[in-house]
Amino acid sequence: MKNVTDRTSNPFGMRPPCDRYVAGYGDANADFHVVGDHPGVHGGADSGVPFTNGAGLRLQRALVDAGLLASAGERPAVNRTFLSYLHMCVVEGTPTEREYVEMERFFDAELRAIAAHVLLPVGERATRHVIEQYTARSPTLADDVPGLHGTELLGSGFLVYPVRDPSEWTGDDRDRLVSALTDLQSTDFYREVDLGRFLPEGDSYRVR
């Protein structure tokens, strides 16, 4: 099944209850969904695109090398990838716990509309949320994001590849991520079910 929109920025018309926000950006039919925290962490308040400050661009460049983006920048050329935040509103400082809860429904609706096969939560908060909501694993795993960085977790209908915050990358963190995503794409990682057995002719009909 394909989505009916080809819009790159805010493809599903999200309208959160705030004056300034950084909407999701990318391929609405994405295989990979990169999930960040909020604009104050990885940028976008000026560009309107997630992951466009220094650390965010560092991640973008790694995703280019892994084949998930065609180019990096304030308007990255996407390739089967969608970028978004748990909390898309631009706020002073860090959102409160209540504000995260209020924005969760927008994030969840967009995530399920994109229906990517692989989730890449970036940083501790995003990783904890994705593990808690979209896997059957303990969210305490997010206590060690550096240890999880670039490794595979099986989720509830998703594969999850946690990503250490790019502002904290050291040593081979970048290369580990690029290698893991490159290796993943050489496998059949699609999370689909064939419903063709329910059709009169038994033709293949694959859905997420």
Account of the 3D structure:
The protein has helices at 39-42, 54-65, 97-114, 124-134, 145-148, 173-185, and strands spanning 25-26, 32-36, 69-71, 77-78, 81-85, 118-121, 153-154, 159-160, 193-194, 206-207. With 208 residues, it is an alpha/beta fold. A six-stranded mixed beta sheet has the order 1-5-2-6-8-7. A two-stranded antiparallel ribbon has the order 3-4. Helix 2 crosses helix 6. The chain starts with 24 loop residues before the first strand and ends with a strand.
List descriptors:
alpha/beta; Uracil-DNA Glycosylase, subunit E; 14% strand; two-stranded antiparallel sheet; 208 residues; 6-stranded mixed β-sheet; globular
Give a summary of the structure in a few sentences:
Helix content is 30%, strand content 14%.
Give the topology.
Blueprint: E1 25-26, E2 32-36, H1 39-42, H2 54-65, E3 69-71, E4 77-78, E5 81-85, H3 97-114, E6 118-121, H4 124-134, H5 145-148, E7 153-154, E8 159-160, H6 173-185, E9 193-194, E10 206-207
Helix pairs in contact: 2-6
Top CATH class: Alpha Beta
Largest sheet, described in full?
6 strands, mixed
What does the overall shape look like? globular
- If helices are DSSP runs of H or I spanning 4 or more residues, what is the number of helices? 6
